Amino acid sequence: MVSTRFRKEKVIVHGLLALGILTVTLGNRLTYSQEKTASPITVEEAVIAPRVENLTPINPDVSFDSSVGKLYCFTRIKSGRPPTVIKHLWFQGDRMVMEVTLSVKSASWRTYSTKTILPSAAGAWKVDVTSEDGTVLKTLNFTIR
Fold it and tell me: Do residue 22 and residue 60 come from a single domain?
């Protein structure tokens, strides 16, 4: 049974959801404050490779012949708060040519995206690995020759 005195205490809840802060005050007696901090997403490994087998990149490199046909951007992600998503933004020169959204379903997650490479695609390329909010976590520069 809750005492009458406690039931009469004024309860104030302030939520600043955008900042992830919740403050609860029970009268003048008790204040509880907890900040919900976002756990960072980190890229543990990221490479460009012509193949991925069993979630393992095969022959990663930074320079590929234009006859390669297809390239993989492989990433191993560490996330303190799954599920979440990351994005692979593929650029040919300064022009983004593809955006791929990938699910991250556990604290340690391996995933990849693929890009068809045409023989006319020679030049400087990069893939930006970003968090869901667009923060660049890693940039992979490579060349198609």
Answer: no
Both tokens of 122, joined, read 């020679």
Residue 127: which CATH number?
Answer: 2.60.40.1930
CA distances from 48 to 51, 58, 91, 112, 115 (A): 9, 9, 13, 9, 10
Number of other CB atoms surrounding residue 78 within 10 Å: 17
Helix (H) and strand (E) counts in the chain: 1, 13
28 and 61, same domain (yes or no): no
Say how many C-beta atoms besides its own lie within 10 A of residue 87's C-beta.
19
- What pLDDT, on a 0 to 100 scale, did the predictor assign at position 12? 35
Q: What is the reported pLDDT for 39?
A: 54
C-alpha–C-alpha distance, residues 3 and 33, integer Å: 24
Mean pLDDT confidence for 123-128: 98
Domain check: are 14 and 55 in the same one?
no
| pLDDT reported for residue 15 | 36
Look at the chain and report how many structural domains it folds into: 2
- Token readout for 93 is 């020169």
Specify burial of residue 36 (Cβ count, 10 A radius: 0-12, 13-18, 19+): exposed
